[in-house]
Amino acid sequence: MSGVVGHTLYAILAGRKAIERRMPVGGLIHRHFDSFLSGAYLGADIQTLPEAVCVDTGKSVGYGTVALQQSPLTGGPVVPWKLLHQGAEYRPSEIADLFYGRSHLIFGWKGDQRKHTLPWDHLHDYVAVVCEDVVQRYGKGERKLAYIFGWLAHIVGDCLIKSIQPGIDMHLLDGKYTPANRPIQDLVSIHEIGVKELGLDWERVLGSVSRAPVEMSQIHYMRIGQPYGLLGQMYPYVWEPRTEGLLREVLKQNRVYQKIRNQRLLDKYKLTRINGEWNCDTRLSEIANHLSYSQMIEVAKQAEFRSHVDVIAEIICELFEQVFQLSTALASVRPAAYEWERMIRRWLVARR
Fold first, then answer.
1. What is the pTM of this model?
2. Which of 36, 44, 122, 147 has a CA-to-CA distance to 215 between 20 and 30 Å?
């Protein structure tokens, strides 16, 4: 999927379950939904940066680590985008090599750092320890905790949809998670689940992702900076204080570029009605083995895509509960004060 679409959808569905079940984590989600959604994407995908710069317009284009030969804006030439920090230049691939494994824990480590891969059954323990530390260091404000649970939703969603961890067995078009089926996942998630079922206004949803501020808890859970707290004691390896300044700049640039990407993604996934039928961008159709939008919907139904997405949300909720059972710092968190339907109003739009 485009990343941000899938991860925000998983988080939203898990959040709805948590609030409807009166789980305490639902209170964090309810009171700090922007930060929860932001953590669900930018809390992990630190490669959310431009890949290149369009020569014709001077605008940043592409997505970090995905090779780009020509500008998607003009079809003209591009030059590599680089982040300048303290006199050094960094390409997105270099930034990903430094930080991606740190934010995804269970996969994504490079080279000799692969030995630091976190086992799946340690994930809830790791996150609980992070919660203890950030409350101890930064106080009881809940926003940073909502961000952490969004980040947890991202890790769980990635592990399941990419079959890193068993849990779903989906065959959509040509496999589980393939270049050809990702447009189908995105389009169905946005329009059939997001708009028609949930009534989401995706402009508001994506705006929340890029609007929420950087949280210091992210620097801690990525083990950048000096080790401290229980995380420093229980996971004392692979801390890296020298790159803290660089990571702070990366997290800032993630939000800058996501704001630019938001409208581009909305335009990319927009449907147009022709002769009574909804049609998607022809480029997406070409990627998806030339399927029309109606055919994509049918293929998704055959693959039981909606059910698989619900399983992901359910497993995310299970991890939420496990973290709460372990963390004494979360004992005072109150469930949501309102029902889901009232809480989500700000992110809704009239259904098509």
1. 0.96
2. 122
Decide if 77 is inside a domain: yes
Across all residues in the chain, what is the average pLDDT? 96
Query: How many domains does the structure of the chain reveal?
Result: 1
Taking each helix axis from N to C terminus, what angle separates 4-20 and 24-31, rounded to the nearest 10 degrees?
A: 130
Main-chain phi, psi angles of 332, to 5 degrees: -95, 0
Pull the structure tokens for residue 265: 């993604």
Per-residue pLDDT of 218-237, as tens digits, reads 999 999 999 999 999 999 99
186 in a structural domain: no
Q: Answer for the pair 185, 305: CB distance below 8 angstroms, yes or no.
A: yes
Cα distance between the two ends of the chain:
23
**In a domain? residue 64:** yes
Q: Rounded to whole angstroms, how far apart are CA atoms 64 and 254?
A: 10
Q: Is residue 44 part of a domain?
A: yes
Q: How many other C-beta atoms lie within 10 A of the C-beta of residue 63?
A: 18
**Strands, DSSP E only, in 81-227?**
83-85, 88-90
Distance CA 85, CA 251 (A): 13
Range of the domain at 136: 4-178+215-260+308-329
| Tokens (6 digits) for 44 | 């992990």
310-338 confidence digits (pLDDT tens) = 999 999 999 999 999 999 999 999 999 88
Cβ-in-10-Å burial (0-12, 13-18, 19+) of 107 comes to: middle
Burial string for 230-249 (b: 16+ CB within 10 Å, else e) reads: ebbeebeeebbeebeebbbb
Stretch (H or E) spanning 60: strand 60-61
String of DSSP letters for 83-116 = EEETTEEE-HHHHHHHHHHHHHSSS---GGGGGG
State the maximum Cα–Cα separation within the chain, in Å, rounded to a whole number: 64
pLDDT at 140: 83
